[in-house]
Amino acid sequence: MTGDDPLEESESGEPMTDGGAAGADDVALDPWGSSSVSDYRKLFEEFGIEEFDEVLEAVPNPHYLMRRGVIFGHRDYRPIAEALRNDEPAAVLSGFMPTGDPHIGHKLVFDEIIWHQQQGADAYALIADLEANSARGMTWEEIDEHARNYLLSLLALGFDPDEGELYRQSTNREVQDLAFELGAEANFSELESIYGFDGETDVSHMQSVVTQMADILYPQLDEPKPTVIPVGPDQDPHVRLARDLAERMRFFKVSEAYASFELEPEERALVANVYDRLDPAEFDDDTLRCVHVAEAIEETPLEDLDVGADVLGAVLTKLEEAGMEPVRPRTRFFDRRATDEAFDALIDAIEGEKRVYESHVDAFDLDVAAAEELAREVEVENGGYGFQPPSSIYHRFMTGLTGGKMSSSIPASHISLLDDPEDGYDKVKAATTGGRETAEEQREKGGRADECPVYELYAYLLSGDDDEFAKRVYDECVGGERLCGDCKEQAAQLMREFLEEHQEKREEVADLLEDADIELESPRRR
């Protein structure tokens, strides 16, 4: 649940929020790997990530990372945007695995947390020390040193510890207790499928995954609320598993239904489609029954039903077994893991016509949205969590200054937030660019800003909130007016100024960190 950074631009100079790079092989998302995602578009197709551009207008005061397409995708961000617009409860959380110095790629995640906090969300930042120890083999002494540096930079950039929460996994008892409960809802075959774990995988590594699930749901322990996790796309497997576990922890599952028996989503869609085409007045006693729906399905050409033969067979079997049972739309509360007291409380809370069965309750006067709200209310009142599935936003990986992915293990590829400002200046001056072979060719054909790590520095960091400046740099580059030498000199000076200011601010917030409610030294040190 840790993240990195980048942006690509179209020939017109507008942010390419659909991903930019094309022609990549299959996308593999490995939270502990070193590979970067080379084709962001495939994330939309293969993993169900939505384009952030589609929700941008709904976001109040969007951060420049959102406006410029650096934040390119999301899962279910709409509830977050709505909560921020309406000043309703919301939360943001992300974690940092302290395996090295924080660099300018990590600053993107810092900025995303801080922006959400400034918009009114409860903010959480954690040190993933259990993950660093189990998955990366870091010693507790190393973890403590790096954790302090991450926290100082986070505070220096504007995180308010009085209004937010800082913690480390290893000392947060509530997180560990929640992880134990979540672990009962996950199994090895699932972790094997998602993460590629096998018989050689350490149990502590697997335990750290469940701990991360608890981290993601931790902001909802006091009350259910929309929660967003800002990450790089390689961390998406964690988000998907957390969303699944949030649902499994719920007391009730709410869905639409048409008869007393349960239908799978594709089966339900088929019955709904046929039901909408039939008029109950055409049948005896004005009642549409299961056998009538079955007959209508059998009379419809398979190509018009748009379902597979297995779905069709399952639906027909269920309808024919139900026989003359009336078909009536209703909202179903299915008992997942509710206590007897919670199930009885739900029955009492449902107003209007209802039918009570052994493992579910059908309500005929409630729509799904109202039923979801009621189910969560009853659950929380009866000792459940009522988790809302966590949302996520995804930012691009920042290109390394030497090309390829920015990596903490390759000093020349990244700029640490702890680098001497003069070293930061020198790294930018030595960086790879998207320039042409000669100045004459650059003036004639223009530079390739979309392939330039130096331009990314302007877009992600050095331009700050000034969109006009970022676009002017791009336009001057692709128009042949801006040559790489002058461009790098300007960027290098801006980077030196940023590092100087940031490191001064780190010194200023040192006392703030000492006073913060977080253990700076692990009790596991020996």
Automatic annotation (TrEMBL):
Q: Where is this motif: 'HIGH' region?
A: 98-106
* EC category name: ligase
Reaction(s) this enzyme catalyzes, per UniProt: tRNA(Trp) + L-tryptophan + ATP = L-tryptophyl-tRNA(Trp) + AMP + diphosphate + H(+)
> What residue spans carry the region label Disordered?
1-28
Alphabetized Pfam families for the sequence: tRNA-synt_1b
Q: Where in the cell is it found?
A: Cytoplasm
UniProt short sequence motif 'KMSKS' region, positions renumbered to this chain: 405-409
What ranges does the record list as Acidic residues composition bias?
Answer: 1-12
Major place of localization?
A: cytoplasm
Superkingdom assignment = Archaea
Kindly list the GO CC terms recorded for this protein.
Answer: cytoplasm
EC number(s): the record gives: 6.1.1.2
Gene Ontology molecular function: ATP binding; tryptophan-tRNA ligase activity
* Keyword tags: Aminoacyl-tRNA synthetase, ATP-binding, Coiled coil, Cytoplasm, Ligase, Nucleotide-binding, Protein biosynthesis
Q: Which residues form a coiled coil?
A: 488-519
Biological process GO terms, please? tryptophanyl-tRNA aminoacylation
Q: What does this protein do?
A: Catalyzes the attachment of tryptophan to tRNA(Trp).
- Which family would the database say this protein is a member of? Belongs to the class-I aminoacyl-tRNA synthetase family.
The name on file for this protein is: Tryptophan--tRNA ligase
Look up and give the organism this protein is from: Halosolutus amylolyticus
